[in-house]
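Its record is quoted verbatim for completeness.
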Amino acid sequence: MQQLLGGYLWILQSDDALLLGLIIFSSGVGIGAAVIQINSIVSRQANDAVTSVITWMLLLAFSLSAIYYLWHSSANVIIPLLIGTLALSSAAGLAVSLNARKRLAEVAAARRQPNDETLLQDYQVLRTASALRKRLRLARQQR
């Protein structure tokens, strides 16, 4: 058992042990973020960007830097290509999150504006009256 375990743990003593650990950790974060994002899209019809844009940006930056490092330091081409799939998935997740945030902003702006023409006119009159009251208050304070 110890010999079998020692056979697998030799990688921890190599120079690339930290990089391998970071790659495994970031892959786990990427898979988890993708599952959360897909669940959000399916359950809420893409009305909410559950996974943060910053998470996708950090994952994309890490995967691109890992690709660059592995491309120049490793003779094996397969590992940078595998990390490239992580970079592509994080870029896709970033695009989905940005699009969902844009849709959320549009929905919030539409909720602030009334749809009916008479309500819109009343809203504009009230907003103008409020702005005039503020200007009068400022003018009185300046005297």
